[in-house]
Amino acid sequence: MTPDIRPLVAGNWKMNGTRASLDQIKAMAEGVKGSLSEKVETLICPPATLLYVATALCDDSPLMIGAQDCHQKQSGAHTGDISAEMIADCFGTHVIVGHSERRTDHAESDALVRAKTEAAHAAGLVAIVCIGETGEERKGGKTLDILKRQLAESLPDGATAENTVVAYEPVWAIGTGLTPTASDVEEAHAFMRSELVSRFAAAGGKMRILYGGSVKPGNAKELMSVANVDGALIGGASLKAEDFLAIYGAYEELTA
Ligand SMILES: O=C[C@H](O)COP(=O)(O)O
């Protein structure tokens, strides 16, 4: 955690979830009401098909709803894509950009991620910009070089602590049950913090840096207590309200 930064516990449902899954969102929306909600923000990013209904379900809850991707343009002939403006129109507040699955499946470059981040900002959304090294890059000792490049090239100059969240997701830790050691996470997050401060000055000191990659109820407290880890981006464990709320609940003691 970083003193004075309100952590964000975010779930990314990826290509999972149908109308039947809305019960989970309802349970999460109820579960995050209470005293902890003043200290910790919560967000679920369901597939785009559920966005509008999900925001309606969270009307009287602090649980926020976001999307998993947006196009870099505001509108036009881009079959199958959705724009940041459309997400805002559905009352979404955040959008994930540059997830490693999009970088791999759709060959998204840092320059494209940066353009999507700018589109998110223009629509008034908070962009959650994902970065992280592959297993090969880690073995080759290139982790910090990759993070430096992705941060420099994926974040636009207009990034602020209010409109941008960075999510560090080591690609090899996603969906594998593997996680870096707490000291590896600490080193990566300290490095990202210093890069953000050197580019964005005070705003870089306040920007949230989430950790993502096999976060579960059992390891959340240890990972979230590492310096400069300002929350989590959770995949598999965010699909069930019970697990998501258990990870959120890990903050009970950490923020006491
Ligand atoms: O966006 C979320 C991440 O890719 C982490 O996924 P995971 O928690 O299933 O490893």
Automatic annotation (TrEMBL):
User: Which pathway, metabolic or otherwise, does it act in?
Assistant: Carbohydrate biosynthesis; gluconeogenesis; Carbohydrate degradation; glycolysis; D-glyceraldehyde 3-phosphate from glycerone phosphate: step 1/1; Carbohydrate metabolism; erythritol degradation
| Gene3D superfamilies associated with the record | Aldolase class I
Q: Please give the Pfam families that the UniProt record associates with this protein.
A: TIM
- Name the reaction it catalyses: D-glyceraldehyde 3-phosphate = dihydroxyacetone phosphate; L-erythrulose 1-phosphate = D-erythrulose 4-phosphate
Among SUPFAM superfamilies, the record links this protein to:
Triosephosphate isomerase (TIM)
Cite the NCBIfam families for this sequence. tim (TIGR00419)
Name of this protein: Triosephosphate isomerase
Q: Which organism does this sequence originate in?
A: Sinorhizobium garamanticum
